[in-house]
Design brief:
- By secondary structure, the protein is an alpha/beta fold.
- The longest helix is centred in the middle third of the chain and has 22 residues, at 104-125.
- A 7-stranded mixed β-sheet has the order 3-4-5-6-9-8-7.
- The two termini are 26 Å apart.
- Helix content is 23%, strand content 27%.
Length: 183
């Protein structure tokens, strides 16, 4: 019998999957990085192929069927598929790393992409996965125009902040996956 992570891994191209011991989320352009802390099972994918100029760039194109229209090809830095250790409930964490600025446009665009992926996994595997999807911006510093929109989660004061649409912004150098897997 298959499970959520096995089916996701079986349906997504391995080119985008990070190694199983992957523990450092990085955004090369800004130099932003965070350590991933987890005890459970998870898969990390990076669909942000960037503007690669090498000869393989055609094979790396995530959305080859879209034009170059602005905003059409937006995608976050990482998507983590995981299950909660206590009850195997499936989750998808959409991660955008920023030194400053607003991560929300990329989080929403990637949410639409993740919805599509889950629907395709369900169709291919004859399943009905309904993971809880969390949108998380990992910020080095929060700009003043964003700070008024977020409130503390109560789990770790000042570390995980949520806006009124339940989008999380995480401050700091570590992302503890278990902190994100709450209903």
């Amino acid at each position: 019998m298959s499970d959520f992570l096995t089916d996701v891994e079986g349906c997504l191209h391995p080119f985008y999957k990070k190694p199983s011991n992957f523990k450092r989320l990085e955004e090369a352009k800004s130099g932003t990085s965070v350590t991933l802390i987890t005890e459970g099972r998870y898969l990390v994918y990076s669909f942000d192929t960037g503007g690669s100029n090498d000869s393989q760039s055609e094979k790396k194109e995530l959305f080859p069927f879209f034009s170059q229209k602005p905003k059409l090809r937006r995608v976050c830095d990482y998507v983590i598929f995981c299950t909660r250790k206590s009850d195997d409930m499936p989750f998808v964490l959409i991660i955008e790393l920023k030194t400053k600025g607003n991560p929300i446009p990329q989080l929403w665009a990637t949410k639409q992409f993740v919805d599509f992926l889950i629907n395709r996994v369900n169709a291919a595997c004859n399943s009905n996965y309904q993971p809880e999807i969390k949108k998380i911006g990992l910020l080095e510093a929060m700009s003043s125009n964003l700070s008024g929109k977020y409130r503390s989660s109560g789990t770790r004061p000042g570390k995980i902040l949520f806006d009124d649409k339940n989008i999380a912004c995480v401050m700091g150098e570590k992302l503890v996956i278990a902190d994100c897997l709450t209903p």
